Amino acid sequence: MDAIAPTSTHPSDEKPSRAEAEAAVLTLLKWIGDDPAREGLIDTPARVVKAYEEMFGGYDSDPADILGRTFEEVAGYDDIVLVKDIAFHSHCEHHMVPIIGKAHVAYLPRERVLGLSKIVRVVDIFARRLQTQETMTAQIATSIDDALAPRGVAVMVEAEHMCMAMRGIRKHGSTTITTRFTGAFDDPAWQNRFTDLIRTR
Ligand SMILES: Nc1nc2c(ncn2[C@@H]2O[C@H](COP(=O)(O)OP(=O)(O)OP(=O)(O)O)[C@@H](O)[C@H]2O)c(=O)[nH]1
Ligand SMILES: [Zn+2]
């Protein structure tokens, strides 16, 4: 499968029904040893499926639609545009438990600029899919590069993986950092400017 496939990977005729998804949750409730018939759990399968629709809503969105809405560069501005500290929640594709972190996304405009909220929306779309941090980092950079053809794109993602905190190795507080640089950001001087701006509070 293409690592940066922009849209849903399940054809709609293969998508299970809501009732089937709720039945799967019911099975898991039984499997962990609880009683799905007790009062507090009666509506839980429906709630979980609804929550999944929200948390995994990124499969139904194509970042190219968001990034297609660009506008002409304002007053000859051609320096770095950085949106930093974009908080996100994602889920790791190995264990389906949360990845919690921040993304920092910069680009160097060529002719057209992006609405700043569109950068945040793109992070949100990719975060609301099952992910590895590396894939998500690359997807954000590639989608902006493809849509805008800027002089360069820089993406840094910092996140804590709950699959390492809540289970398995059970170590809280470690942060994983991933980066992706394209175009002018291959130059270490631009990379340093990007990281300096991120660290500036
Ligand atoms: N590279 C990368 N690894 C990840 C990410 N999220 C989770 N992982 C790792 O994916 C690996 C899956 O390893 P497996 O040995 O197949 O699964 P596991 O037995 O559950 O592994 P443990 O977590 O070590 O218990 C683990 O080392 C996770 O820490 C990610 O975003 N990127
Ligand atoms: Zn995991």
UniProtKB/TrEMBL annotation:
Pfam families: GTP_cyclohydroI. Pathway: Cofactor biosynthesis; 7,8-dihydroneopterin triphosphate biosynthesis; 7,8-dihydroneopterin triphosphate from GTP: step 1/1. InterPro entries: GTP-CH-I_C/QueF (IPR043133), GTP-CH-I_N (IPR043134), GTP_CycHdrlase_I (IPR001474), GTP_CycHdrlase_I_CS (IPR018234), GTP_CycHdrlase_I_dom (IPR020602). It is an enzyme of class 3 (hydrolase). Zn(2+) binds at residues 92, 95, 163. PROSITE patterns: GTP_CYCLOHYDROL_1_1. Residues 22-198 form the GTP cyclohydrolase I domain. The keyword GTP-binding applies. GO terms for cellular component: cytoplasm. One of its GO terms (molecular function) is GTP binding. Homopolymer. Toroid-shaped homodecamer, composed of two pentamers of five dimers. Belongs to the GTP cyclohydrolase I family. This is GTP cyclohydrolase 1. It comes from Oceaniradius stylonematis.
